[in-house]
Amino acid sequence: MIWYTVLVLAVAAERMAELAVARRNARWSLTRGGSESGQAHYPAMVLLHTGLLAGCLAEVWAANRPFVPAVGWTMLAVVAAAQALRWWCIATLGRQWNTRVIVVPGLPQVTGGPYRWLRHPNYVAVAAEGTALPLVHGAWITAAVFTLCNTVLLTARIRCEEAALAAARGVRA
Length: 173
Prior knowledge:
Layout: H1 2-31, E1 35-37, H2 42-62, H3 69-93, E2 101-103, H4 121-135, H5 140-169
């Protein structure tokens, strides 16, 4: 269980790195006339993602969840793939990537990288990681609760993001 704790803490450190990138990108976007949307759902997103990490550790330690190699190693591969996809999204969007919905008017829509195939690949990474990380060490309750809550939250988030992008293009969403 110690190695699993280290894994979850490594994911937490990665999230902190994301937040540093997001803060830098937010400053860049706002100084170029960017406007933020969806502030109301952002605290829920922070709470959900913090809860995911805490839930992984709490469930594994409190319920003494076993590591089942066939599931655990497979889910670890999914976590690694989700991280790779997330950072591919960050690299592709560059300064336009953020954990918040901030749209800078006049910038072209990004259609390269993973956005060539998926409209919201970062959310695919979030969903995959949110299910797989708990399942690496059998925290199935955390995986189920996160998946349910994340589905509700992402529904609102994607609607908000699509509306902000459409407004920036002068199109009705």
